[in-house]
Design goal:
The protein is mostly helical. It is built from four helices and no strands.
Amino acid sequence: MSKADIILKAFADTEKTPRSLREVEAEAVALLCCEVLELEGAVYCRGYLQNWLYQGIGFDASAIPEKSAQKILRAADRILRAGRSDLDEEERAH
């Protein structure tokens, strides 16, 4: 199983999740990764996230379901860990 497959398992119930919430989940993962890795794009992610929050639940970030918050954090953590593993392997090779 690839790292991508493992990460995507965090979003296994995608068919049941409304599109607005799927967009919020995906963009929140992107925002967390951009912030942690200090990549450009965090401002864009915030705007995109706010747009979908407004469409789905009306700017009330506290209305993001606990299950979604857990999925967001789990997916971001897996992505960040996957990147660190690769870096560790590269550093050991040199």
